[in-house]
Amino acid sequence: MTPAKQRGEYADNWKEISDQVKEDAGNRCVRCQHPHDPTSGHCLTTHHFDGDRGNNERWNLMALCQRCHLSVQGRVDPDVPLLMEPSDWIRPYIAGFYESGGGMPGPTYNLEQWIEKYPHDWPTWAPTPSKIF
Fold first, then answer.
1. What pLDDT score was predicted for residue 3?
2. Residue-level pLDDT at 4
3. 4, 25, 62, 98: which could join 47 in a potential S-S bond, CB 3.0 to 4.6 Å?
4. What is the 8-class DSSP label of residue 104?
5. CA 40 to CA 46: how far, in whole Å?
6. What is the dihedral of CA 29, 34, 36, 42, to 10 degrees?
7. Residue 128 scores a pLDDT above 70
């Protein structure tokens, strides 16, 4: 996959938004679960999934350690349809992207099945069949 192109401007209250995203994630990376620990290279950041710094919808904001942020930003483009099942951790974000009208869902996308198979409580900010953006 090619990475999403960065565009848009950060909101004036970006620090507060970013801090809330990190707090919601328990100050851990949502991908690798490592806690915020800058000395080990796990400095917690907030990634805009669709590459638009001005899009602060909750489904678009991922608390990622710096290592995972660089990996995801450099390899994942949400506009490219999925051909395989995605990792559990990213499903709510992809669902939010698709249900808000972004991208074209691939053949593996099924919101109800993703919610059912999700190993944790499905996030309250993520779409559900009764709550589509």
1. 55
2. 59
3. 62
4. -
5. 18
6. -90
7. yes
Label residue 14 by pLDDT band (50, 70, 90): very high
- 92 half-sphere exposure, CB direction, 13 A CA radius: 21
Residue listed under structure tokens 């938004």 = 17
Amino acid identity, residue 110? N
Contacts 24+ apart (CB under 8 A), 81-87: 81/105, 81/106, 81/107, 82/106, 82/107, 82/108, 82/109, 83/107, 83/108, 84/108, 87/31
Tokens read off for 92: 């709510």
The pTM score is 0.91
Chain centroid, CA 61 distance in Å: 5
pLDDT at 66 over 60: yes
Give me the mean pLDDT over the 83-96 stretch: 95
